[in-house]
Amino acid sequence: MFKPEVHLPTWITNWFPKAIWTIPNNRKEIFLTFDDGPIPKITPWVLDILNQENIKATFFCVGDNVAKYPELYQRILDEGHVVGNHTFNHVQGLKMSKSEFINNVNKARKFINSQLFRPPHGWLKRSQYKAISKQYKIVMWDVISVDYNPAISPKQCLQNVLEFTRSGSIITFHDSLKAEENLKYALPRAIKELKAKGFQFNKIEFEKVKQLYTDTQWGRFKQRTNQWKQKWA
Ligand SMILES: [Zn+2]
Q1: Of these residues, 7, 35, 90, 142, which one is catalytic?
Q2: What is the dihedral of CA 65, 36, 216, 167, to 10 degrees?
Q3: Which of 80, 85, 154, 216 is surrounded by the most beta carbons within 10 Å?
């Protein structure tokens, strides 16, 4: 089914060829990510679930939240998860200049020790993408639960994840107030069902993914064309 708000078509993901959208592997490994925290009302709940399920995940933190709740940030690290930079104020790249945007990312860098970056909403201008790619590995997603949208039912949120997850998927949830209801329903159920299907969960480590997708846009296009040619030959 075509649901771009959950899973983007390949031609869009090619627009940012050096970014990571999936992490291909033959171990049915998938990667949970949590954006916009850490906050006291939600993040500890997520960490408790991950502990119970013995899962390591990746948290794309907002610098301002880390500054307010350093103990939560520390707990994420102490429990063996990975953190990434999600800007200082959750700013939207398309609405600001390159230097304003980079300044906000650098401000967050003072609080978040990571070479992984995820742009809020996945939005980046070309110039911002180029500048950020030099300093960070950009991590996008393969599946968004759409948990942040209260117009979506908790069941639909769960269904979004189960329908589109495949080996290598990077799955996005939000440790935010907006997402609370959907997250608290969908996350534990998604973990149980995906485990039952044989998937295993892992965190995204910079050292392991830095060599993925170093291609230019043209390189990525050529690679895909060759794959198609082989497929239809
Ligand atoms: Zn976000």
Answers
A1: 35
A2: 130
A3: 85
Q: Which of 7, 81, 86, 174 is catalytic?
A: 174
Could you report the per-residue pLDDT of 153-182, keeping only the tens digit for each? 999 999 999 999 999 999 999 999 999 999
Domains of the chain from N-terminus onward: 19-232 (3.20.20.370)
Tokens at 120, concatenated:
């809020």
State the residue for tokens 């230097």. Answer: 99
User: Is-catalytic flag, 174?
Assistant: yes
Nearest to 35 by CA among 177, 197, 222, 202: 177
How far is the centre of ligand 1, averaged over its atoms, from the C-alpha of 228 (Å)? 34
- Between the CA of 198 and the centroid of ligand 1 the distance, in Å, is 29
- Ligand 1: distance of its center to the CA of 86 in Å? 7
Mean pLDDT of the chain: 93
Contacts of 211 (CB under 8 A, 6+ apart): none
pLDDT-flagged residues of the chain (< 70):
215-218, 220, 233
Backbone torsions φ then ψ of 122, nearest 5 degrees: 75, 10
Question: What tens digit of pLDDT does each residue of 57-68 get?
Answer: 999 999 999 999
Q: How confident is the model over 69-84, as pLDDT tens digits?
A: 999 999 999 999 999 9
